[in-house]
Design goal:
Elements: H1 9-20, H2 25-32, H3 36-48, H4 61-73, H5 79-88, H6 95-104, E1 108-110, E2 114-116, H7 120-133, H8 138-141, E3 144-150, E4 163-165, E5 177-179, E6 188-192, E7 201-202, H9 209-228, E8 234-236, H10 241-244, H11 246-255, H12 271-282, H13 291-303, H14 307-315, H15 317-326
Parallel strand pairs: 2-5, 3-8
Antiparallel strand pairs: 1-4, 3-6, 6-7
GO molecular function: DNA binding
GO biological process, one term: DNA integration
Organism: Gadus morhua
């Protein structure tokens, strides 16, 4: 960044468009993601009608179209694999040239968004559920205690293959990675309301109905007292086998706790999923050496969650519902 030559074709076009709209160079630099001097040099060069000096490009427009087709066929390939296919197609270019042409087209190498894999029946049920809840207000959602389990690892570095995509393509189905239930392991159970978080429970064994009911007894009930006092609340959990077991349903009936009906495979509708993401982002710089240090780090980070963060996430429920309806039950950006 800082050199006009470093600007991609997309960035230059964006600068020209924003300049025509009357935006200042400072605003343009911020929106484009480059230095203000780069913006200034590009604008001055265009004004003077000067063209970039240097050797003529070794690739034609036809070559570039072939490259874009190769990238779009499988966006999870690395530069080396894409370069090899481009060469086989009859283009004589180096690996670095291949990379530059991809950048000129607006492709960037990014970690893919993860969305749940939904079948047609699940999408229909999600849509029906969203339509049923579309008139719920933020005040009504504030009466819901959201809960979930999440897996924490000592290392957060292994995030899988990256994907080539352009600006605005984050939600493109070809740029998404489908998520499925992760294998059972030692996980953390937690709960939240619109005002605060409850105590964490570290699960030491596979979560069956009996284990889950122990969690409810020793962690959910104290969390309810802490978050709601003597006020009524509705409990939310997903449709994991331990949650939907008959004995678990009986436990809730015996304790007089109403349950929020919940569509299957819908983590994007649950605000606590975003809360887990906040905790994990805050822990990125932590380097625990063992499980005990990891637990201590999780506890300390969980304790730093503010009421404002909880309120903002629960207040997003009407928007999540609207997004699910607009997507006709498909997974949403949340």
């Amino acid at each position: 960044m800082g050199k006009t030559a470093d600007l991609t074709t997309v960035q230059k076009m964006t600068i020209d468009t924003l300049k025509k709209e009357g935006k200042t160079q400072k605003v343009i630099a911020k929106e484009v993601g480059c230095s203000q001097s780069s913006v200034s040099k590009h604008i001055n060069r265009e004004a003077k009608g000067r063209k970039r000096c240097g050797r003529k490009e070794c690739t034609s427009k036809r070559d570039k179209r072939a490259l874009e087709r190769i990238v779009k066929q499988n966006r999870f390939k690395n530069v080396g694999e894409i370069h090899k296919e481009w060469t086989v197609a009859g283009v004589s270019a180096s690996r670095s040239t291949t990379h530059r042409r991809m950048q000129d087209m607006g492709f960037s190498c990014r970690i893919p968004r993860v969305k749940p894999l939904l079948n047609k029946r699940q999408r229909q049920k999600r849509l029906a559920w969203a339509q049923d809840k579309k008139d719920w207000t933020a005040a009504e959602w504030s009466k819901v205690m959201f809960s979930d389990e999440s897996k924490f690892c000592i290392s957060f570095g292994n995030q899988g293959p990256r994907v080539w995509r352009k600006t605005g393509e984050a939600q493109n189905p070809r740029c998404l990675k489908s998520s499925v239930k992760f294998p059972q392991s030692v996980m953390v159970w937690g709960a939240m309301s619109s005002t605060a978080v409850g105590p964490l429970c570290f699960l030491r064994s596979r979560v069956n109905a009996a284990v889950y009911q122990e969690v409810l007894e020793h962690f959910m009930l104290p969390a309810a007292d802490q978050l709601y006092g003597g006020d009524d609340f509705i409990f939310q959990h997903d449709l994991a086998p331990a949650h939907s077991a008959k004995s678990t349903s009986t436990w809730f009936k015996d304790h007089g706790i109403p349950l929020l009906d919940w569509p299957a495979n819908s983590p994007d509708l649950n605000p606590i999923e975003n809360l887990w993401g906040i905790v994990k982002r805050k822990m990125r710089d932590a380097r625990p050496n063992n499980a005990e240090e990891l637990k201590a780090t999780i506890k300390a980070t969980w304790a730093l969650i503010t009421p404002e963060e909880c309120n903002r996430l629960v207040d997003s429920m009407p928007r999540r519902i609207a997004a699910a309806i607009q997507a006709k039950g498909a997974a949403t950006k949340y």
